[in-house]
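Now read these lines:
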Amino acid sequence: MRVITTIAAMHRQALRWRREGVRIGFVPTMGYLHEGHISLVRRARQLVGRGGRVVASIYVNPKQFAPTEDLAKYPRDLERDKACCAAAGVDAIFFPDDKQMYPSRAEGAYSSYVIEERLSQGMEGASRPTHFRGVATVVAKLFNIIQPDVAVFGAKDWQQAAVIRRMARDLNFPLRVVVAATLRERDGLAMSSRNAYLSSEERRQATVLWRAIELTRAAVRENGTATLRLKAQIERLIYREPAARLDYVEFFNPETLQAVAPQRGAQMALAVFIGKIRLIDNGRL
């Protein structure tokens, strides 16, 4: 397994593989890998086959963090990540720094961004107004650098995956975007690098996101309920946990992300602060 730190070297390697007819699978990450990330690597391997190459990027992208968010504290452990990738059969890790990804001769000189204007507006886009601009920009850059045939994203970030799919289609990237299922802990909590921030008591309370999804699914099975009434039930459930604070809960069409009533086939997403840690989750109803 190679660790590649420059765009020029990664681009050369990717173009060499493409000239040789080798399929490239790509898994973008911000590091501090867990079994959820490894499941994406396995899916990428499945899609490109034993003769293909799987690239994982590890890059904590500053452009998707607001000044008030946890960029400086985001967990990092490259040696552990390298071991995880090697064990999972990753062929190359792309590990650039900020100077590689956002070169500029003067502070603030970087000024080219990718903006998706429809799917990115609600939910995470409303709570974190510059987030998807940063996500779409860095993913577009990574697509150009790594030249993948297929890129695998996790369903836990449902809105992000929808935005990336739309961007890839609208900008004619010659690749397939695959969304793989969310992996969960035994108690239902979605696997996330941010779970490492939680104290033991906060970790216990964090399962309230999954319990909110289960409550909603049960309500829909029992012939549904009005949106406002169901949101009130979810809010009461969440605020039973002392450390929990609801950011949003929404019900929407899983393709268009347009708001719909809570019903079979709709998607539900929510964001909850557990103490200072903001967690997201979603599920099909």
Observations:
- The chain has a mean pLDDT of 96.
